[in-house]
């Protein structure tokens, strides 16, 4: 009879408690916010590199134009 009682006690302990659920949600939220900030930082770096590339292309176009106009 005792083995049945122990088996029944073990079945009642399945699942998350409220504290475990809140901690899990807090960790997921923290990881999400960290990944979003990393994505935003990467986008800003890409925009800066894209701007530099565009400026380089404009500079090359001005040099080409001036060399063609003077030739």
UniProtKB/TrEMBL annotation:
It comes from the Bacteria. Keywords: Membrane, Transmembrane, Transmembrane helix. The chain crosses the membrane at residues 21-39. InterPro entries: N_methyl_site, Pilin-like. This is Prepilin-type N-terminal cleavage/methylation domain-containing protein.
């Amino acid at each position: 009879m005792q083995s049945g009682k122990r088996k029944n006690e073990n079945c009642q302990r399945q699942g998350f408690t409220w504290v475990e659920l809140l901690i899990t949600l807090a960790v997921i939220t923290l990881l999400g916010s960290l990944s979003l900030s990393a994505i935003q930082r990467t986008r800003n770096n890409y925009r800066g590199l894209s701007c530099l590339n565009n400026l380089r292309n404009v500079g090359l176009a001005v040099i080409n134009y001036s060399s063609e106009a003077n030739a």
